[in-house]
Design brief:
By secondary structure, the protein is of the alpha+beta class. The protein contains 10 helices and 12 strands. α5 runs antiparallel to α6 and α7 crosses α9. The chain is elongated, with a radius of gyration of 32 Å. The termini are far apart. The protein binds adenosine-5'-triphosphate and magnesium ion (MG). The site of adenosine-5'-triphosphate has 21 residues, from α9 and α10.
Length: 360
């Protein structure tokens, strides 16, 4: 077989798509039968008009830019774009091309990657669904925590109101008693208001908030409001060692709270299965940093899993319970604060450390 016969057979028989294109415009001068079959147009139709007509409208601009680029750089690799077939079906192609200045021509090869793309889309969709399910789960926990927190002061308000009514119907209201009852109602109501206010701040996306000087103690206490109830009702001892009131960090408090809440929820999940049940928050001040440390009495993180903890979608929890995004997001949040989050492997118990630059 002569070399030209061989080229001809290769061009005609290969299942990859081959095109030859004039580099000065978008007209294909030659297209092989594989591309003719894939697009459903005749060879004549494909070569008698701009090839951009077959490109998906959303990809045309980018495809034009890439076409110019091939001429400038001499080649193109793994460029993916969409075409619309005669039947109206969208197909994804992945292109490799070279430019030959001698004849001002581009020689290109493409492959149909529609199946791979559809699979990628399906996986992305599944990840979104899992994330949504886990968000609901997190929301459920938050709601349970709030219900518990609000329930106590509300019970007291209710009790005092009943007492007041009895006193009023009995006709004997003592000045002191009245004062004590109303003070308690006032106290408890303002506690509820604080909780609701905290919840509003907490469920916002804090990523666009400005950095501010904020008390470490307040961040931690605002976070504890959302989980103290759940811990208590599951028999888990939750302790927070005292820190000075004036200890501050320069941070977006809502985001740091979200990081801590994820650590506390992670600890909750493991401790629930442990014979001894406690979670402890301690604050350590070093020369350069403030560390908020969350330790738990759980069984720890297996050695072979440690390298993956902060990867997106790494989770050992059943489907619907965890997305494996908590620590990954926490890591991004700390990085945007010039801080860090890590597992302290030298600590005697499982300890995650949230580290922020020291400012005071
Ligand atoms: N305190 C801990 N003790 C033992 N393993 C932990 C602890 N904290 C996290 N892990 C492990 O790290 C994994 C990833 O945690 P991460 O918070 O990123 O995701 P998740 O809790 O599984 O899901 P999500 O937080 O998105 O709901 C967990 O599934 C668990 O295997
Ligand atoms: Mg988590």
């Amino acid at each position: 077989m002569s070399p030209s016969e061989l080229n001809d057979r290769l061009f005609t028989l290969t299942l990859d798509f081959l095109v030859v294109k004039n580099a000065s415009n978008h007209y294909w001068t030659h297209v092989n039968p594989a591309l003719v079959r894939a697009l459903g147009y005749s060879e004549q139709e494909l070569t008698s008009q701009s090839s951009m007509k077959f490109v998906h409208p959303d990809d045309r601009h980018d495809t034009e830019l890439r076409a110019k680029n091939v001429v400038m750089t001499g080649s193109l690799q793994d460029y993916e774009n969409r075409y619309i077939t005669r039947e109206g079906r969208v197909i994804w192609l992945s292109w490799t091309a070279v430019y030959d200045p001698k004849d001002n021509t581009v020689y290109a090869v493409a492959r149909d990657i529609t199946r791979i793309k559809e699979r990628e889309l399906q996986i992305a969709q599944q990840k979104l669904e899992i994330a949504a399910a886990s968000k609901l789960n997190a929301l459920g926990r938050l709601a349970a925590g709030i219900a518990h927190e609000v329930n106590n002061p509300l019970t007291i308000v209710y009790g005092q109101a009943c007492r007041l009514r009895k006193l009023a119907t009995g006709g004997s209201i003592n000045q002191n008693e009245l004062q004590q009852i109303s003070e308690e109602i006032e106290d408890m109501s303002s506690r509820i208001v604080r909780i609701i206010k905290g919840l509003r701040a907490f469920t916002r996306d804090g990523s666009n908030d400005p950095l501010e000087f904020v008390s470490v103690k307040k961040i931690i206490e605002d976070t504890l409001v959302f989980c103290r109830g759940n811990f208590k009702s599951s028999g888990i001892e939750l302790t927070f060692d005292e820190v000075p009131d004036d200890l501050q960090v320069y941070a977006r408090p809502v985001q740091i709270s979200q990081v801590l809440l994820n650590l506390l929820n992670n600890a909750y999940d493991v401790v629930l299965e442990a014979p001894e049940k406690w979670v402890r928050i301690t604050v350590v001040i070093t020369e350069t940093h403030i560390e908020m440390r969350v330790s738990d009495s759980g069984s720890g993180v297996a050695l072979e899993l440690r390298a993956h903890l902060f990867e997106a979608f790494f989770t050992t929890k059943p489907v619907g319970k965890g997305t494996g995004l908590g620590l990954n997001i926490a890591h991004a949040i700390l990085a945007s604060h010039g801080g860090d989050i890590f597992l302290d492997e030298s600590a005697p118990n499982t300890t995650f450390v949230v580290r922020l630059p020291r400012v005071s």
